[in-house]
Amino acid sequence: MANDTKNTTKTLSLTAKRAYVAKTRSINYRSSLRLEGFDLPDDTETVDERAVSKQQIIDKYRLTAG
Predict the structure, then answer these.
(1) What gap in Å lies between CA 28 and CA 34, rounded to an integer?
(2) Cα gap 64→58, rounded to integer Å
(3) CA dihedral 45, 51, 52, 56 (to 10 degrees)
(4) Could you report the per-residue pLDDT of 49-66, keeping only the tens digit for each?
(5) Closest CA to 13 of 25, 5, 23
(6) Which of 23, 32, 34, 48 has a CA positioned 20 to 30 A from the CA of residue 6?
(7) What is the pTM of this model?
(8) C-alpha span between 9 and 17 (Å, rounded)
(9) How far is residue 4 from each of residues 1, 9, 16, measured CA to CA in Å?
């Protein structure tokens, strides 16, 4: 039983670390592009909006392929 708790804690910790690294990598990449002179739009799109636009793109190519 103690091993299960230990493994869960490690897994959650690893998951949190991976999320932090992914977020930091994205922020650093965007900052680097700005320093190089690229104009970037603000990332104000929500996850739900991205899912909708992704689904619209998939539907578009389904229609043209079929």
Answers:
(1) 10
(2) 10
(3) 120
(4) 667 788 888 888 888 886
(5) 5
(6) 23
(7) 0.43
(8) 12
(9) 5, 9, 18
